[in-house]
Specification:
The complex is a heterodimer of chains A (565) and B (304). Chain A is built from 25 helices and 7 strands. With 565 residues, chain A is mostly helical. Chain A starts with 14 loop residues before the first helix and ends with a strand. Chain B has 304 residues and is mainly α. Chain B is rod-shaped, with a radius of gyration of 39 Å. Classes of the chains: A mainly alpha (565), B mainly alpha (304).
Chain lengths: 565, 304
C-alpha cells in the first residue's frame, strides 16, 4: 500500500538547485521569487485525511477480500477434491490458473482461442478411408491373436488340392456362428470338406462405422480407433455369407434394412453382441481421450463456462447489479446478465464444439461418476481431517500470539486468531451437514467442499466487516500516521533548505552590494570617476544599460534633440 | 534449563497479572468495568484531544504573534521603499532634469509604483484547526444515548468498546494532522522572516543609491555652475540657455553620463513592485529604453 504515496507527497526542494536559481535572480526580484517557493502543497490537511479514508473504503477491497477467496475456494473444492481421484490433475486447470483467467475475463477482450488448434489437425488423418487405410491403420490385429483370445485351437488338419493341382495341408478348427449358432469351419476348404459354411471374423461394429462415429472427436487419434476396432468384444464369428451381406453396417442398421433375413432369435443375438461391443468401445474411447489430451480440452471448456458466470458475479459485487444496463429494475438487470452469460456460453462453447461436445460429455461424465463411486471415504477420514484442521488453526493462532507486539499489534493478533478459529470451526459445522448433502452422489460431495470454502470465506468476511477489534481503523490510523509523518518530514526539510539557501543568497547579495556601494561612495567623495561603480550596480541588479561608454553617451547627446528616460 | 526457567517466569508473570486483575476488581471495580465498556479508551481519547487543542492553540498564538511582528516590519520596509520611490520622482528626478537641461533637452517619463503590503502573503492558506467532538467522537461516554447503552449490553461491551477504540484512533489521526498544521505555521514563520530579510536588502539598495545620487547631483550642480560662470567670464553666450557639451571637460560629461545611467537604474527600481506581481515595468518604460537602444545602435558605425 505504501507504494501509492505519490498523491500525498510534498515536492521536496533541493538546496543546490535553489541556490543556483537564487543566484540567477536579480536582487530586485528576490522577494517575489522567495514568495513563489512552496514549502508545502496547497492541499488542505483535511482533504489529505479524506483521501486516506477513501483509499480504505474503495470497493476493490470487496473483490479482494471476498470475491476472490470465494472463487479460489470454489476452484479448490472442484479441483483438489480427493474423491475425484486426481481426475482434474490430468487437466491443465490449477486453482490459480482458473482464478487468474476467470478474473481477467471481460466480454470485450475475449478472443476465440479456447481449444487447442493442433488438436484439430489430428482430424485430417481420420478423414481418408479406403482399403489401403483399412488394412494399414485399422484392421491390423492378427487373426491368430483373436483366436487365442477366444480360446480357439486349430487342432484339425485337412489336406486339399489347390487351384494349381498341388496337394496342400492346413490346420483348422470348428467354431460356432455367433448369430445362428451353427457349426462353421475357419477355412473354406475345411468347410467344403465338412459340408458346412465357412466362418468369417466379423467386427461387430464395423471399422468404417467406428471411424465415422469418432471422425470429428478431436480427442481421439487414428491409433485409438485401431485399438477400439480390435477390442475382443468387437470381434465375432459369423458365416461368411452373412458377413458379406452385412458389409459396413452395424447389426441394428442391418436389421433395419433387412428385417426378414434373420430370425427373431438371431436378431436378439446380434443386438446383444452389438450392445456389448459398443459398451466396451465407449469405455476404451474414454480412457484414450483422457490419456491423449490429459483432459486439456475439458479444462478449457470448464474455464470457458465459468468465465462469463464469474464475470457477472464479480461485476455485481463491484459495480452493482445495474451497472452497464439501461434499466432501473434490479431483477431485469439480473435476468439480462444471465442472458448475456448464457449467450456467451452458447456462442463460444456449445457452437465451437458442435457434435463432439456430445461425445465428450457423454464419455466424461460416466467416467467421472464411476471413478468417484469407486472410492470410499469413511467417517474415520473425516474425523482425522477435522482434528488436523483444528490443530492447524490452533498452531497458527499460537504462532501469531508469539509474535512481538512491535510487529503485530494486540488488536491485529486478536483479529487474526478469531478469524483462524472461525475458519476451522465452519468446515467442521459444514461436515456435520454433509450426511444430508452427500446423498446426492457427486454433486453432494463436491458441494460440501465448496460450501465449506464459501462459508468460511463469508464468515471471515463478515468478521472483517464487523471488525470486532477495529483492526481496519487501526490500519487506517497507521496509514494516516505514515502519510502525515512523511509530509511533516518534507515540510521540515523544505523549510530548512529554504532558509539556508535563501539566507545564503541574500547575504551574498548584500555583501556584493555593499562593496559596490563603498566604491561608489568613495569615488563620489573623492571626485573620482564614478561610472565604473554605476555599471557594476546595474550589472548587479541585472539591469541592461544601453549606454555603455562615454563615447556612446556623447553620440546619444549629439544625435538627439531630446532624450527621454 | 534456560527454557524451563523462561516458561516458569512466563507462568509467574501471567499468574501475577491475573491476581492483580482480581485484586483490582476487589479494590476498584469501576476500573475493570471501564475496561469492559471501553470507557478507559474513550477517556484516553478525550485527554489526547484536550492535549492537541492546547498544543494547537499555543502554536497558533505564537504563530500569529510572530507573523504580526514580521508583517509589521515588512510593512515598515515597504513604506520606506514607497517613500524613496516618491522621493525619487518628486525631488531627485526634478533636480536631475533641471540640471540636465542646462546641457541638453532631457525628461523623465512614467510614474513611480507605490506598493501596499498585503498580509496574506505571509499567511498559511488552508489552515484547518482541531475539529470538534462532532467530527471525531464515535461515541460520547459523557452523553450516552439509550441505543448505545442497549447495544453495549447486548454485545457484551463489544459495541461500546469498538466505538471507543474508533474514537481514540480518530483523535490520534487528528493529532498527526494537527502536527502538520503546526509544522506549516512554523514553516510560514521562517518564510516570512526570509521575505523580511530580502525586502530589507531592497530598502538598503534604495537608501544607499538615493544618497549617492544626491551627492552626485551636488557634484554635477557644482560643475554646471562653474561652467556657466566660466562662460560668462569668457563672454560666451548660452544658446537656448544651454551649455555646449562639446566644449565641456570630459569629467563633467562623465558625471552627466553617470547620472543618466543611475537615473535609469533608479527609475526601474521605483517602478517595480517587490512583493506583488504588479508593478512590472510598464510598456512606456520599455519603449523609452528601446528608443535609446535604437538610437545608439543606429549611430554605432558613426561612433566607431
Amino acid at each position: 500500500m505504501s507504494a501509492n504515496n505519490e498523491k500525498y507527497t510534498i515536492k521536496e526542494l533541493s538546496f543546490d538547485s535553489m541556490l543556483d536559481e537564487l543566484n540567477d535572480t536579480s536582487p530586485l526580484h528576490m522577494s517575489k521569487k522567495l514568495i513563489e517557493y512552496e514549502l508545502y502543497d496547497q492541499q488542505d490537511s483535511i482533504e489529505v485525511l479524506n483521501m486516506v479514508y477513501e483509499e480504505f473504503e474503495s470497493k476493490d477491497n470487496v473483490v479482494d477480500s471476498l470475491v476472490n477467496p470465494m472463487l479460489l475456494s470454489l476452484a479448490d473444492g472442484l479441483i483438489k477434491h480427493p474423491k475425484l481421484n486426481g481426475t482434474f490433475r490430468k487437466t491443465n486447470i490449477t486453482p490459480s490458473r482458473l482464478v487468474n483467467e476467470v478474473n481477467a475475463f471481460t466480454y470485450e477482450q475475449h478472443t476465440q482461442k479456447e481449444i487447442d488448434d493442433d488438436v484439430f489437425l489430428t482430424q485430417a488423418e481420420k478423414s481418408h478411408y479406403g482399403s489401403f487405410q483399412r488394412s494399414e491403420f485399422y484392421d491390423t490385429k492378427d487373426r491368430s491373436i483373436t483366436e487365442s483370445e477366444k480360446g480357439i485351437i486349430r487342432d484339425e488338419t485337412i489336406t486339399y488340392v489347390d487351384r494349381n493341382g498341388e496337394i496342400k495341408s492346413k490346420s483348422t478348427a470348428t467354431v460356432q456362428d455367433d448369430i445362428t449358432g451353427v457349426q462353421l469351419d475357419l477355412t473354406r476348404e475345411g468347410a467344403r470338406q465338412k459340408g458346412t459354411l465357412a466362418a468369417d471374423m466379423d467386427h461387430v461394429n464395423p471399422i468404417n462405422s467406428i471411424r465415422n462415429k469418432y471422425k470429428n472427436n478431436p480427442y481421439l487419434y487414428r491409433d485409438d480407433l485401431e485399438t477400439i476396432v480390435g477390442l475382443s468384444d468387437n470381434e465375432s464369428y459369423v458365416n461368411s455369407a452373412l458377413n458379406i451381406s452385412k458389409g459396413d453396417m452395424t447389426w441394428s442398421e442391418y436389421i433395419e434394412k433387412y428385417p426378414d433375413k434373420l430370425t427373431p432369435e438371431q436378431q436378439k443375438n446380434a443386438l446383444e453382441l452389438e450392445a456389448k461391443a459398443t459398451e466396451a468401445q465407449n469405455k476404451e474411447a474414454t480412457i484414450a481421450m483422457a490419456k491423449n489430451i490429459g483432459l486439456k480440452g475439458l479444462g478449457d471448456i470448464i474455464i470457458l463456462l465459468i468465465k462469463p458466470i464469474w464475470f457477472e458475479i464479480k461485476d455485481m459485487f463491484k459495480n452493482g447489479v445495474l451497472h452497464g444496463f439501461d434499466t432501473d429494475d434490479k431483477i431485469e438487470a439480473f435476468l439480462l446478465r444471465l442472458k448475456r452469460a448464457g449467450k456467451f456460453i452458447n456462442d463460444n462453447v456449445l457452437k465451437t464444439l458442435g457434435d463432439s461436445l456430445k461425445d465428450i460429455l457423454s464419455n466424461f461424465i460416466p467416467m467421472l461418476i464411476s471413478s468417484i463411486a469407486g472410492i470410499f471415504i469413511g467417517i474415520f477420514k473425516k474425523i482425522i481431517q477435522i482434528i488436523s484442521d483444528g490443530f492447524m488453526a490452533i498452531k497458527e493462532a499460537f504462532k501469531i500470539m508469539m509474535k512481538p507486539n512491535s510487529e503485530v499489534s494486540p488488536a491485529q493478533k486478536a483479529d487474526a486468531i478469531t478469524k483462524i478459529i472461525a475458519s476451522a470451526i465452519v468446515p467442521i459445522l459444514i461436515f456435520s451437514f454433509e450426511e444430508t448433502l452427500s446423498k446426492i452422489p457427486l454433486i453432494g460431495d463436491v458441494a460440501s467442499i465448496i460450501l465449506s470454502g464459501l462459508a468460511t470465506t463469508l464468515v471471515v468476511w463478515i468478521l472483517d466487516q464487523i471488525d470486532l477489534f477495529s483492526v481496519k481503523d487501526e490500519k487506517r490510523m497507521m496509514r494516516v500516521k505514515e502519510i502525515f509523518e512523511l509530509r511533516i518530514e518534507a515540510i521540515k526539510k523544505n523549510t530548512d533548505i529554504f532558509e539556508k539557501a535563501s539566507l545564503e543568497a541574500l547575504a551574498k547579495q548584500k555583501l556584493q552590494f555593499r562593496k559596490i556601494a563603498d566604491d561608489m561612495t568613495h569615488a563620489i567623495a573623492n571626485n573620482l570617476p564614478v561610472n565604473d561603480a554605476i555599471y557594476q550596480v546595474a550589472d548587479f541588479m541585472k539591469i541592461d544599460l544601453k549606454v555603455k561608454s562615454t563615447d556612446d553617451f556623447l553620440e546619444l547627446l549629439k544625435t538627439n534633440e531630446k532624450i527621454v528616460i | 534449563m534456560g527454557f524451563f526457567n523462561k516458561v516458569w517466569h512466563g507462568v509467574k508473570r501471567a499468574a501475577k497479572a491475573v491476581v492483580d486483575t482480581v485484586v483490582d476488581i476487589a479494590i476498584n471495580p469501576s476500573k475493570v468495568w471501564n475496561g469492559i465498556t471501553g470507557r478507559t479508551k474513550f477517556e484516553e481519547a478525550e485527554a489526547l484531544l484536550q492535549e492537541i487543542e492546547d498544543r494547537y492553540d499555543k502554536a497558533k498564538r505564537k504563530y500569529e504573534e510572530d507573523i504580526a511582528i514580521i508583517a509589521l516590519k515588512i510593512e515598515e520596509k515597504i513604506s520606506k521603499i514607497n517613500y524613496h520611490k516618491r522621493d525619487i520622482y518628486d525631488n531627485h528626478f526634478v533636480r536631475f532634469v533641471s540640471l540636465g537641461n542646462k546641457i541638453h533637452n532631457i525628461s523623465v517619463k512614467g510614474n513611480n509604483f507605490l506598493e501596499y503590503f498585503d498580509a496574506s502573503i505571509t499567511e498559511v492558506k488552508n489552515l484547518s484547526g482541531v475539529r470538534g467532538k462532532n467530527d471525531l467522537y464515535q461515541i460520547d461516554f459523557n452523553n450516552l444515548k439509550f441505543t448505545e447503552i442497549a447495544l453495549g449490553i447486548v454485545t457484551l461491551g463489544f459495541f461500546t468498546r469498538k466505538k471507543a477504540t474508533q474514537t481514540l484512533l480518530k483523535v490520534q489521526e487528528e493529532e498527526k494532522r494537527i502536527d502538520e498544521e503546526i509544522e506549516k505555521m512554523q514553516a510560514q514563520t521562517v518564510k516570512a522572516n526570509v521575505i523580511l530579510e530580502s525586502i530589507g536588502n531592497v530598502d538598503e539598495y534604495f537608501a544607499v543609491l538615493v544618497q549617492n545620487y544626491t551627492k552626485l547631483l551636488d557634484r554635477f550642480e557644482y560643475g554646471i555652475k562653474s561652467q556657466v560662470q566660466k562662460n560668462i567670464l569668457k563672454g560666451i553666450l548660452l544658446v537656448d540657455g544651454k551649455l555646449n557639451f562639446k566644449m565641456m571637460p570630459i569629467a563633467h560629461i562623465e558625471e552627466f553620463q553617470a547620472l543618466f545611467n543611475l537615473s535609469i537604474v533608479l527609475k526601474q527600481m521605483a517602478s517595480l513592485g517587490y512583493l506583488n506581481e504588479d508593478g512590472e515595468m510598464n510598456n512606456e518604460d520599455i519603449k523609452s529604453v528601446e528608443n535609446i537602444q535604437k538610437i545608439i545602435s543606429s549611430n554605432q558605425p558613426v561612433a566607431a
